[in-house]
């Protein structure tokens, strides 16, 4: 009713400091508050976290959030603490004493913890945590389960995590009274959505999908040649003075080669990948957030959960592994809504390299053929000369898109830009 609506907006303002809901946030929040299982598919940066953080603040009880990575969890915990929201994380690196402190808060009469972040293996391992959940549930204090990055539960996703499949017991185990589940992801094709809902036993969940169109991103593609990266980065520096961007590379070694190439040309660049030690990684992240250098040379390990609003360009120096991956990686540009550039440096040879890596990988033939098929889709995207790139990207997620909107936008993709120029040339010819 009206009271609920009012309470949503006043909490949004007083606790989170925002005036408006974005995308489908409000609908998702209402659905989960009404007790429905809810499945949320919204692009990166849309604000999925608020869909469970706000209900957690409004309702009594504890909300349990399953999230795949410690870095994501730490990041969220810090934000919640800054907002004065009771939040703790159960991760592998806690001391037994710290863990005990969390358990004793949860089993107290009125837990101060509103949001409890856990990694999936914590949930599936029976034992202490299981009995704490049972205890909360019995007292009506288990408010909600949240499954963040829900595509991790599907084999067809780009980031399958076996521990996620064990979350399939939550629906049945906490069914009397039912504890609502909300699952969220940014990267799921229709096939992955179906698979994830089945695996989580959330077939009856309400599904909310918001548009994948990113109007402020310019998608472009040029052939990869010897000097193209340096030239392109110089052009980006002119377009966006004082700002920085990401160059995605296939391997750690390639990150280093690219960094060398750029610094030799007088540009400032740092590397970032999973092989760096924590101190260096934190230092690079910090100076990256402050625009202290032009380019971060990164493997796809970089980016998940790092929320830099003013990334002005994302360059793919090597081929992404899938269309979803490409959408996700380019999606890190322009989160502040300002025009930003996504450029692919394409070489067919890179696709052969990628396919060789997949063929040599140690996995089942089904998974291998899925990965190979993903690469073929990327190649088709790159070799395409007639279909709008925005259209190809968003239709991959099952959305329908009219390429006229790209053609008429301030940031048309390279294909639409070319078409527009052709049309103008024809008009010019008509007039004369
Ligand atoms: P996602 O998980 O969908 O990638 P996040 O939940 O991390 O996105 O949110 C991305 C950013 O958007 C965060 O900085 C968050 O504070 C901000 N945000 C979320 N909701 C709103 C809103 N309604 N108004 C303004 N900013 C918002
Ligand atoms: Mg998120
Ligand atoms: Zn287009």
Automatic annotation (TrEMBL):
Q: Which GO terms describe its molecular function?
A: 3'-5' DNA helicase activity; ATP binding; ATP hydrolysis activity; DNA binding; four-way junction helicase activity
Its annotated compartments are: Nucleus
Main location (coarse class): nucleus
Offer a single GO CC term for the protein. cytoplasm
Q: Name one GO biological process term.
A: DNA replication
Keywords tagged on the record: ATP-binding, DNA-binding, Helicase, Hydrolase, Isomerase, Nucleotide-binding, Nucleus
Keyword Nucleotide-binding found: yes
What residue stretches are annotated with the Helicase C-terminal domain?
228-376
- Report domain Helicase ATP-binding positions: 29-206
Put simply, this protein is called ATP-dependent DNA helicase
Q: What is the lineage of its organism?
A: Eukaryota, Metazoa, Ecdysozoa, Nematoda, Chromadorea
């Amino acid at each position: 009713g009206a009271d609920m609506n009012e309470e949503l907006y006043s909490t949004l303002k007083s606790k989170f400091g925002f005036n408006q809901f974005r995308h489908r946030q409000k609908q998702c929040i209402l659905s989960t508050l009404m007790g429905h299982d809810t499945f949320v598919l919204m692009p990166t940066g849309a604000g999925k976290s608020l869909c469970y953080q706000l209900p957690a603040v409004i309702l009594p009880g504890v909300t349990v959030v399953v999230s795949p990575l410690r870095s994501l969890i730490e990041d969220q915990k810090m934000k919640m603490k800054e907002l004065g929201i009771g939040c703790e994380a159960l991760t592998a690196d806690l001391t037994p004493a710290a863990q005990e402190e969390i358990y004793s808060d949860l089993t107290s009469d009125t837990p101060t913890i509103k949001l409890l972040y856990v990694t999936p293996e914590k949930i599936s391992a029976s034992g202490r945590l299981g009995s704490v959940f049972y205890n909360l549930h019995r007292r009506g204090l288990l408010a909600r389960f949240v499954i963040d990055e829900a595509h991790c539960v599907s084999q067809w996703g780009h980031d399958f995590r076996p521990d996620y499949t064990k979350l399939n017991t939550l629906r049945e185990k906490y069914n009397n009274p039912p504890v609502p589940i909300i699952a969220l992801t940014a990267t799921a094709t229709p096939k992955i959505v179906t698979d994830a809902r089945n695996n989580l036993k959330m077939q009856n969940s309400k599904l909310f999908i918001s548009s994948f169109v990113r109007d402020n991103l310019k998608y472009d593609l040029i052939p990869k040649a010897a000097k193209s990266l340096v030239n392109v980065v110089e052009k980006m520096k002119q377009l966006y003075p004082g700002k920085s961007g990401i160059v995605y590379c296939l391997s750690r070694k390639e990150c280093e080669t690219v960094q060398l190439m750029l610094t030799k040309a007088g540009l400032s660049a740092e590397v970032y990948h999973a092989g760096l030690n924590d101190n260096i990684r934190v230092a690079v992240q910090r100076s990256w957030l402050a625009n202290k250098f032009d380019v971060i040379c990164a493997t796809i390990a970089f980016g998940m959960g790092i929320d830099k609003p003013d990334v002005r360009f994302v360059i793919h120096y090597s081929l992404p592994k899938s269309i979803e991956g490409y959408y996700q990686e380019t999606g890190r540009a322009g989160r502040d809504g300002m025009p930003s550039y996504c450029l692919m440096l394409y070489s067919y040879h890179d696709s052969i390299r990628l396919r060789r890596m997949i063929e040599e990988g140690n996995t089942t033939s089904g998974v291998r053929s899925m990965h190979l098929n993903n690469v073929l889709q990327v190649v088709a995207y790159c070799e395409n000369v007639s279909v709008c790139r925005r259209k190809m990207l968003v239709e991959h997620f099952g959305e329908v898109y009219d390429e006229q909107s790209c053609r008429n936008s301030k940031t048309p993709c390279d294909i639409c830009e070319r078409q527009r120029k052709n049309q103008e040339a024809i008009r010019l010819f008509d007039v004369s």
